[in-house]
Design brief:
The chain has one domain: Rossmann fold, CATH 3.40.50. The chain has 8 helices and 9 strands. Strands 3-2-1-4-5-9-8 form a 7-stranded mixed sheet, with helices on both faces. Strands 6-7 form a two-stranded antiparallel ribbon.
C-alpha cells in the first residue's frame, strides 16, 4: 500500500527552507513560519488567502496547527506550481490553489490575506497592494512579511548567502553582490531608497527584483498609505526589532467598518 504524500515535506520550497541542509537557513525559516502561524491563529474557521503561496508550505502548516481556516486559498502565477500544489493537497478539501488572474473576479472575499516574501520582488508594489485591499473584507487583516536587508542584518545575510552558494544550498548563488559603497549605504539606510535595485527578466514576461537594495521602511510607508498599520513584528525574534531581525511583518487592516476579527492587544506598538 502506498503511503500518503505529506503535502508539506514534499514541497520544493520546504526542502530548501524548513528542511534545508544548512542549519542556519533551516532554523531561520522555521522561525519565520512559526511567526506566520502565530499571526494566523485568530483566523481559525475563517477565509484566508496566501498570495504568492509558492509550494503551499504555509497553508499546509496551517492545516496541522490547531483549528485551520474554513477556507485556505493559495494564489500563484505559474501554472505548473499551481498544478503541483493541487496534486499534493488533493486530500485537503478546504485548501485550494488558483492563478492570481482568477482573483480579479473576487472582492471582499477574505477575512485575512498573507503575503509573505513577495513584495520585495515586485517592481511596483502599489497595484498589488490595491488588489489585496479589494480582496479583503472591510476591516479584514493583511499580513505582509518582507526581508530586512538594511542595517547589521544585511551584512550577516550576505555572508550566509555566499557560504550557502558555495555549498550549493538553495538558490543563493544568484544573489546580487554589493559594492563596498553600496554595502555602507545599506547598513546606514534610513527611510528613503538607498541604492539602485537590479531588475531581472521573468520567464513568461515581466521583471523582478532580487533582495539587493530592498528597504523595509519604504515598504512600511507604502502599506501605511493604504491600510491602517496595526502592528509590526520581527522574526526570528521580536524583542531585538529590525536591528537584529531577518524578517519584518506588517499587520495591517483594510480601512472600513465591521473588522473581520479584532486581534486583542495589537492596536498598540504600531511601527518601529
Amino acid at each position: 500500500m502506498t503511503s500518503p504524500i505529506d503535502p508539506v515535506k514534499s514541497g520544493y520550497y520546504a526542502r530548501e527552507q524548513i528542511h534545508s541542509r544548512d542549519p542556519f537557513i533551516r532554523w531561520s525559516h522555521r522561525r519565520r513560519f512559526s511567526c506566520g502561524l502565530a499571526l494566523a491563529r485568530p483566523f481559525a474557521g475563517r477565509r484566508v488567502l496566501d498570495y504568492g503561496c509558492g509550494d503551499g508550505t504555509f497553508l499546509g502548516l496551517l492545516q496541522e496547527h490547531g483549528r485551520p481556516p474554513a477556507l485556505s486559498v493559495g494564489a500563484e502565477i505559474d501554472a505548473n506550481v499551481i498544478a503541483g500544489c493541487q496534486s499534493r493537497f488533493a486530500a485537503c478539501p478546504n485548501v485550494r490553489f488558483v492563478d492570481v488572474a482568477a482573483l480579479a473576479h473576487e472582492a471582499s472575499a477574505y477575512d485575512a490575506i498573507f503575503c509573505m516574501e513577495v513584495l520585495e520582488h515586485v517592481p511596483d508594489p502599489q497595484p498589488l497592494l490595491c488588489d489585496l485591499e479589494r480582496l479583503l473584507t472591510p476591516g479584514g487583516t493583511l499580513v505582509i512579511s518582507v526581508p530586512i536587508e538594511t542595517g547589521p542584518p544585511v551584512l550577516v545575510k550576505q555572508v550566509v548567502r555566499r557560504v550557502a552558494g558555495w555549498r550549493r544550498v538553495g538558490n543563493y548563488p544568484g544573489t546580487s553582490s554589493y559594492r563596498p559603497s553600496e554595502m555602507v549605504k545599506s547598513v546606514m539606510a534610513g527611510s528613503q531608497q538607498h541604492v539602485p535595485r537590479p531588475l531581472f527578466p521573468r520567464s513568461g514576461g515581466g521583471a523582478f527584483h532580487d533582495h539587493k537594495g530592498f528597504n523595509w521602511r519604504v515598504m512600511r510607508t507604502l502599506v501605511a498609505s493604504r491600510f491602517d498599520l496595526v502592528r509590526t513584528v520581527t522574526s526570528p525574534f521580536n524583542w531585538p526589532g529590525p536591528l537584529l531581525g531577518t524578517q519584518i511583518w506588517f499587520v495591517a487592516r483594510r480601512r472600513g467598518t465591521n473588522p473581520a476579527h479584532d486581534q486583542p492587544g495589537q492596536r498598540t506598538g504600531a511601527s518601529r
